[in-house]
Amino acid sequence: MKRIASIAAAVLLVFGPVATGQAGAQIHERVYPAPKAPLNLTGLPPAAAMVTVTTADGLTLRGVEVAPRDGKPTFLIFHGNGSTANNSVRWLSPLVAEGYGVVAAEYREYSGNPGRASEKGLAADADAFFERARVVAGAGPLIVVGHSLGGGVAFGLASRRKLDGLVTIGTFTRLSAMAPAIARPLLTDRYDNKGAIASLDEPLFLIHGDADQVIPYAHGEALRAQAVAAHRTGALFTVRGAGHGPDSATLAMVLRAIVAKVESGEATAKVALPAHVRLAPF
């Protein structure tokens, strides 16, 4: 995954001979380094299927879904800025094998989808995939997961919809915090995740590796501190030694624990976790 922090590379061009419009294009490419290859089911679990949704502004987008089995919860997952819906399903494959449902959203401009990515555009995409995920989940819980930039998409969705649970992985406080001060006036998108916490009405679960070199661990700590100050319920799961995302097996163990908390209605309920994961409730 390309780093959101590479926005800084584009900024160096702004104060040379490059026009502002060109600088904006450079920044867009770094915030949204969209893979172009169309989605396919190669290498995905046999139960995976393509899904098509239509956004409020009229775009038809393709994603990937797996229906839940035996009353298991469903995860609606928003990937990071350089990833794809295919990668989301692969990441959650241990849970898919256990019968959990997954709706892996894909964004406009990504993986052959039409449109141009932006915070407003991805919000419309999230709403469309949320409606599909509610159908897939049926009467079961629907837990929204966002990785990195996808955490910003998930926070935005939570500000508009009531979720059963919100999970972010390696997510930043604000997009502007990932750029030098001199570049911030050029950012057209905000993704103010820290500011969104005060209005949450669902439990919030933060997952962050303490060796994350893309979105530093301090961002996870800052989001937890804001949640405490805002009297939200949830927890920070610190994955010791992990980088910008835990491995599939570790993520599966943490998400199982989160499901247990959501289903019990007790965000502070005790759960079993691997030794390298530290839990800090709030």
From TrEMBL:
Keywords: Hydrolase, Signal. The keyword Acyltransferase does not apply. One of its GO terms (molecular function) is hydrolase activity. InterPro entries: AB_hydrolase_fold (IPR029058), Hydrolase_4 (IPR022742). Gene3D superfamilies: alpha/beta hydrolase. Residues 74-184 form the Serine aminopeptidase S33 domain. Residues 1-25 form the signal peptide. This is Alpha/beta hydrolase. It comes from Caulobacter radicis. The lineage of its organism: Bacteria, Pseudomonadati, Pseudomonadota, Alphaproteobacteria, Caulobacterales.
